[in-house]
Amino acid sequence: ACHALLVEARSRIAEMTGLAPICPGSPEWISQLCVLPMPTSPEIDLGRLWKQYQIEAPITIWRDRRFVRISIQAYNTPADIERLIEAIGAVVVDAGAE
Description:
- By secondary structure, the chain is α+β, with helices and mostly antiparallel strands.
- The protein is 43% helix and 17% strand.
- It has helices at residues 2-17, 48-53, 78-97; strands at residues 33-38, 59-62, 65-71.
- A three-stranded antiparallel sheet has the order 1-3-2, covered by helices on one side.
- A hairpin with a 2-residue loop joins strand 2 and strand 3 (65-71).
- The relative contact order is 0.23.
């Protein structure tokens, strides 16, 4: 169930950002955790994920690219995924359009 939620979130976030995932979504590559590329526009404040939405998702920068780590646990629900996608949409997509 965790893998299914992660694959759904990963697919929808990649579609929203327009950035392809860095690996396949099969269980051989990901289980309950994945890293997704995020836009690097300076207007995007991924810290808002916590400050505004109380979503804890570590942000890393590697080789001038920004990534968010998403981890799904047994207590996460489809509603949590909707909230995550909504938050990333507001933080990343809306900010990038400004």
